[in-house]
Amino acid sequence: MIQGGTPQNNGIITIDNDGKKTTVSDETILNHVIVIDDDDENIDGPRLDEVVNNTLQIPLTLYNLNKVKNKEYIDDVTIDSVINKDVIQGNPDLLLVSATVWEQRIIENWGNERRLPNRLPTVPRYSMTFKKAIIPIHMPGHWNLAILDKDTKICTFYCTLRWPLREPFYSKLKLICSLLCDGQECEINFK
């Protein structure tokens, strides 16, 4: 059974192995595979989402984590949470375009006005100082990534399966890049 760490104890977790308690840090957790006993007998123990939230500081629900655990499709909330935690936080030069953008039918604007309809969702919400934008792209059955360099106006598309970027994804990526670069045209490269 795993007992999750809290922000007060800096992510230290206690693992109970047959009556022996062992205390480990976040770094140890990230470097080892952990089997979480979530059977019905463990009613008082922490849930998987509590362990992840408290230890790794990634705000995911049990629903999201069960999708990963059961080897189902990873959803946009999981993608956003992990990229935000591992890449964006503490890095003011980076901006995350939310993976939820691929579910939006209409995107018309991006700016410091919070209440505009059909707004491009980003983390942070708006930033004039970002240098690169991380853009996760969900194509049916596969996640891809694009990185926009604001200074050069070049967006590089990465796909581990080497799939081409077809319509409507290509046009939507061009629109996203244009909104982030104050309406200027951006070039899309493929890696």
Give a quick rundown of the structure.
This protein is an alpha+beta fold and 191 residues long. The protein is built from five helices and nine strands; from the N terminus they run E-E-E-H-H-H-H-E-E-E-E-E-H-E.
Describe, in plain words, how this protein is organized in 3D.
By secondary structure, the protein is of the alpha+beta class. The protein folds into two domains: 2-69, no CATH class; 76-190, TATA-Binding Protein (2-Layer Sandwich). 25% of the residues lie in helices and 23% in strands. Helix 5 links the parallel strand 8 and strand 9. The longest helix is centred in the middle third of the chain and has 13 residues, at 76-88. Mean pLDDT is 74; it is low at 1-42.
Task: Give the beta-strand count.
Answer: 9
SS class:
alpha+beta
Q: What general outline do the C-alpha atoms trace?
A: globular
Whole-number mean pLDDT: 74
- For the record, give the distance between the C-alpha atoms at the N and C termini, rounded to a whole number: 43 Å
Our count of domains comes out at 2
Task: Describe the main β-sheet briefly.
Answer: 6 strands, mixed
Q: Which series of helices and strands comes N to C?
A: EEEHHHHEEEEEHE
Name given to the CATH architecture of the largest domain: 2-Layer Sandwich
pLDDT < 50 runs, ≥5 residues: 1-42
CATH class placement of the largest domain: Alpha Beta
Radius of gyration: 20 Å
Widest β-sheet, arrangement of strands: 5-4-6-7-8-9
InterPro entries: Papain-like_cys_pep_sf
Protein name: Ubiquitin-like protease family profile domain-containing protein
